[in-house]
Amino acid sequence: MKPANIRNSLSGLLLLCAMAVSLAGCAAPRTADTHTQAIDAQADESQTSGLTGDPAHGSTPAKKPEETFVSSQMRFAVSLFRQAAATGEGNVLLSPLSVQLALAMTANGAGGQTLAEMEALLGGSVPLEELNEQLRTYVGGLPSGEGSALHIANSVWYREDDGLTVSPDFVQCVTDAYDAQVFGAAFDDQTAKDINNWVSQRTDGMIDNMVDRIPDVAMIYLINALAFDAEWQTPYQESDVRDGSFTSASGERQDVQMMHSTEGRYFDTDNAVGFFKSYKGGGYSFVGILPDEGVSLHDYIAGLDTAALLQAMQNASYGSAKISMPKFSYDYALTLNDCLIALGIPTAFDKDAADFSRLCQSAAGNCFISKVQHKTHIEVGELGTRAGAATKVEIAPEGAPPMSGPTIRLDRPFLYMIVDNATNLPLLIGTVTSI
Please, what are the domains in the chain? Predict the structure, then answer.
């Protein structure tokens, strides 16, 4: 179908979607007006009705993900982080889950070599239809409750243009498999405000400027937003926070506030030591990883063995590890095009070779991924952790008994993750090289 005007025929488009064959576990498609007032009215519902498991909203815990899924997702997380960390020397913070969800939605509009490359990167040997279901099952089973909340939301925004036809099957797929909201908009300054408002509301205000301006060539945005807000299982007391120092990657000695505690789980790898610090509710943990003396953080990340790290975390020792870590907070942003091309999906970014015919058709030329932008924020303090992430894919046409544990002081560059305790998969993974 190629409507004369997509805005006028959106209801017809969704009617076709409703009649399309649904993927397993899919819900009915949803659309929304793109004016800020309408988005505000939906905020409360969207904050709690995304893909996360939430007993208050009738969802049920999902079965534990298969080992192959866990290993492939950890491989994707570490590989993506390794590429991002190689781009500079400053603090880095990615949400592999946010990037995965945004790209997986996009992959459902791909075909041919484009689809083959995206499937290989995102799911290994798993076909996309199966990956859709695995991601829905995994994300639907992530805990979210009082004291430890995780909210995830997805959306698709398309330009209302006579020359653009959005595939009804694609709309059906992303609404069913990813609970994505679908917005038709003018792609003007008001749309940029609406997108920023949508992302800000769904990241608790931590990511508030996802779009500076919408380029004339942009036709579709596929967006994931993630917000994590959790209290420590055992908060730090005033006496636990004392003045300390942190030696940055450049060798600068910095004055910091160090938080001291004793934690019950720790692990060793060949060239690093790490620990778990639990959040309230027991569903998530902060994982700090300190490379051994003489091993730079850069070299540690470059040689990180995904399987060995997972095994070390799964086989963590129990005891009393004395932990010191600094209070820290920062924002991070990165365009992921080069990282993703290096990881094996160059065709998706090739304006001539990309195949997104299952997503849309444009009179302006062949559609390809023009930009993948990722923004994150984190705050780690005495009471807990707040973190937010958003990923935007822009589509454009051509044109055991207790044992004594180690003492771990995060007083020099270190790696950290926020993981779900059922799988040890990172929701976020970052580095602190300077406070």
Answer: 10-230+331-397 (3.30.497.10), 232-328+401-432 (2.30.39.10)
